[in-house]
Amino acid sequence: MALSLRCAQRLFSRTVAPRVTGHAFYRDKGDMHPAPPDIQEPTIPPYEEKVGEPLHLKRARLQYQSRKRGMLENGLILSTFAHRYLSSMTEQQLSLYDRLINLPSNDWEIYYWAIGVQPTPQEFDNEVMTMLKEFVKNSNKEDRTIQPNLH
Q1: Which of 4, 24, 91, 119 could lock 35 by a disulfide, CB 3.0 to 4.6 Å apart?
Q2: pLDDT tens-digit profile of 78-135?
Q3: Tens of pLDDT, residues 41-68
Q4: What is the spatial distance between Cα 64 and Cα 42, in angstroms, rounded to a whole number?
């Protein structure tokens, strides 16, 4: 059963609105109100490359981070990509992949670059991104609707 337009508007009016100009806002009965100053959104720490990390730990961390994304599409793409390629990647390729999945602040950017909807910025346009783009094409028509089992 579909919601009436008025009912949908009432439901939407009680939801939290996105951040606008650095301040959190919320909706109440259709009106925007600034969030109280004591409520702060958590910040994402800046990316810092882990220098000297043992390769087996780096692979394990990247496999975990590939599975636990902010969106299902990237979780599926990156977890299946990592399952296939992480074990054979060189140290340099692992560093490039680490930067790719941890440096952009928005998972949609990675997704759009991988599927070719947006051009890949020069700093991420490297051999690992080329591998990911080729992987996303899924030339063999593999079923990638679930994340692979951890080993």
Answers
A1: 24
A2: 999 999 999 999 999 999 999 999 999 889 999 999 999 999 999 999 999 999 999 9
A3: 667 778 888 888 999 999 999 999 999 9
A4: 21
